[in-house]
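Pasting as-is:
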Amino acid sequence: MRIVWFSILLLAGLGLAQWQNREALITDFRQVQGVWIIKLDYVEVRDCNRDDCPAGLEISNQNPLLRTFRFTPSTKIFLLKSAGEYFQATPQQLIQGLGGRNFGWSFDKYTPFYIRVNEAKREIIELRQMYLP
């Protein structure tokens, strides 16, 4: 009986490992042969209370390895309209925002995003702009 429970827990853990929630910077975003491709650099966003950290947040990049994922028809992009309100965006709006267009709450290539990815399939599930004061 213990072996059965261990097997079930192991399989559940493997399934969860495929879908990961992370924070990342967008380093490249383009369409290749009709498929949207995004390159991400995983980062850590930490609270800080130092004089050299006026925003109260610190973005740390301990592993500069870039990861490439593709968008699917079900991929969701959420951009901030205000401090607490998101709207669902298109890939074109994401490109416009990275290029400087303001949809209510500006961002740039140094703004981290919350991402949900399927590592095994190399697919983006959700991309959500992080609120930075």
